[in-house]
Batch of 3 targets.
Target 1
Amino acid sequence: MPIIQMVVVVASNEKERETLFDFFANKAKEMSTKLVTMVTIERKLKRIIINERSAVSKNYNIKTNEMFLQFTLSSLGTWGRL
């Protein structure tokens, strides 16, 4: 089974973050893959969140700099956009 390791999305608030998580979880299910981690960038709070429902440990050293975001988004291809 392929694994989608990380999805990066931009959310304006908690409700939008939950909606986006559900959307990607359903997409992963449709594709018979496993969604491991979703990282959300909250525009207003300028922080990155590892979704609590992810199946992966939260021991990440994530940098919120532009280079990290560009690298992550480009590695996601069509899955991510900012």
Target 2
Amino acid sequence: VGEPVALDVVDDSVSTPIDTPIEIDILDNDFGIPTDGTLTVTDPSNGTVEINDGGTPDDISDDTITYTPNDGFEGTETIEYTVCDSEGNCDTATVEILVVDNDSTETDDSPIEVNQMVTPNGDGRNEFLFIRGVDKIRSSTLKIFNRWGVAVYEGENYNNQNNVFDGRSRGRSTLSTDDYLPAGIYFYIFDYTTFEGESKVDSEYLYISR
């Protein structure tokens, strides 16, 4: 019989449209979750959260949470959850929830559309930040910042081919260049110039997930 897996809960990051509740399987990427322990969640600042017991109130291993943002709230919500086993061993992790207004990220006359999800996990989907329309502009500069405002990436003339942000650091961060950034919510600024010589800026949140 192998040794039991130690309790280890891991941070999560998700995204939901404005005014839209989201169910989050916060335990899916955790280790050593007990069946007879406890799960507690802090109150969010800009919405409500409810624990779903999965129809098994005495077993927390299948629990999820549902976060409902306040009406009109747009931005980043952060909550914490704590799992404890029957012996009193506890671990805490953070859930970052990005609430976005998908209707306001782009204007009708903008040639640019940024996919705000990066999942560099080798499955061939969202492996890098895809920016639709880069072939329709003359030049560009992309800057990405973490939640503390530290630049983690900067590049010019983004092309969705050999010059892309694939979740690795290239900026004045505490990580070494080419280190993969931790999962979480980031902020990008995409400055670009059209072929007509007009300067434009697109900025929004993006999030990295594994």
Target 3
Amino acid sequence: MIGPGTGLGAAFISNNVVFPTEVGNTQFTFQQILADVGVTNVQQFKVLEDLLSGRGISRLYENFSGVLNSPEDVVRLCKDKDQNAIKAIDAFIDSLAIVISDMALTYMPGRGIFVAGGLMRTIYNFIDQERFINRFIGQRKSMHQDLLQQIPIGIITREMTCLHGNLAFLTSQLMKS
């Protein structure tokens, strides 16, 4: 599970055990991702969550337009067909696909990858599925492309997923008693 928002959170779940990460504060392949999505002003991007978070959308917009706007304003501008906002949202989504791809090859999530959070619900309609999958699969070796094509990816659109997840877990534990 990965959730860009005020920062970038990710966890891996195996047999109902959650393994939290600090992936948002990593720098693996980070400079290459910035280059791949057209970021020229790299000084503002130190760790992954500087790119994959609400403030990342603001910084991407600033990179393309020279103007710093809130993530909400960038989304509104994208809806209004502002070309710099479209570039910023596309760069964010492309970056997310690349990072999820690396994480998928690292952890081999057989049951899939789930992307969560209000930010993702907000930009969900801007995701070009074909483009996302192309970035996710990327220019990998054919054996890795085959592996990635088998991994389902879902975006959780339900609000308050943490509350629902905690309630489901508690219920399952109470049923065991």
